[in-house]
Amino acid sequence: MKYAAKRLSFPSAILAGLALLAAGCAAAQGSTAGGAEKQASRQPDCAAAWSPATPYMAGSVASRGGVNYTAAFWTQGNAPEQGQAWQAGKRCRPAAQAKAADHDANFPPNTLKFLKANTGLDGEQWDNIMKLVNKPEQDSLEWTKFYGYCEDIKDKRGYTIGIFGATTGGSNDEGPDGPTLFKEFDASSGASNPSIAGGLARAGVHGSMQGKILKISDSAKVFCDKIGGLQNNPAWRDAMWNTFYKVYIQYSVQQARQRGFSSALTIGSFVDTALNQGAAGDSGTLQGLLSRSGNSSDEKTFMTAFYAQRSKIVDTNHYNQPPNGKNRVKQWSTLLNQGETDLKNADAAVQKVTDWEMK
């Protein structure tokens, strides 16, 4: 499916390399925190924990103390670190650590650091937010596949691009974020004086600003093929998140914190509304909905009212094709009622609430 509607730094610095430790001192001194994280990311996941009540056939694998052990022969009740029944293997990542690493792997390291510092949310929480956002936009939870997304969805907003649907602008979008995206791409690519023209040139596409609208002169095929080719470009991904933050995330976090709210579910709900209906402006934007959602300081009470207000208009004004909009809001409201407000250890819950059919 397609991105539904419209709208209205972070630093591009590359993480410093880890200091190498002398081989003779490595065991005694350990590693830096960053080194430990990288080492852990290379470790296999831990098998099921060893249990004294479980019989193990030869070749069975169990973990204990962060190490995977393989049974040399049938055994039961013999601790892996004792006796000859077990052969020690490599150190392994506990399941919770492996799970967190899986979420974090969807983000560039500098993006994770920036999001944590500026939103208070970690990789697992942002990964779940992006899954909830991408379902009604692309009918998929695999949001990382859409950095190179490009399409003219005939909504008079120009081309729709990337993981949050940046647009080049048109009669229905006279304040597009596409120009900012290309300028950020130029900056992330190392330009000392970044410009929209510079970003277009780096992408290998042609266009120019006509007022606030970015008019693309290439054919749709040529333009979208070039954007698709940026799918795995690190500078493009960095620019994508930089623009996403400036246009939608920053405002959404501010609005949540002004009301005393900081949960991942609330911030994610505001971000989803902002990119789908606009951050600020008319009554249908995030700003307009917040003004009609009451003044309760209780987060659940306020968000319940917010979801009710959004449900009234989410399938209007070309925001979404009915009934996709109401299902979009229902994802968030259901998680609220289930108490999944921190979006931690919520993989199964997110999978369940996104299991609906796009129209």
UniProtKB/TrEMBL annotation:
Keyword check for Nucleotide-binding: no
Protein keywords: Hydrolase, Signal
PROSITE patterns given in the database record: CHITOSANASE_46_80, PROKAR_LIPOPROTEIN
One Pfam entry name: Glyco_hydro_46
InterPro entries found in the cross-reference section: CBM5/12, CBM_sf_5/12, Glyco_hydro_46, Glyco_hydro_46_N, Lysozyme-like_dom_sf
CDD domains: ChiC_BD
Domain Chitin-binding type-3, residue spans: 47-89
Signal sequence extent: 1-28
Entry protein name: Chitosanase
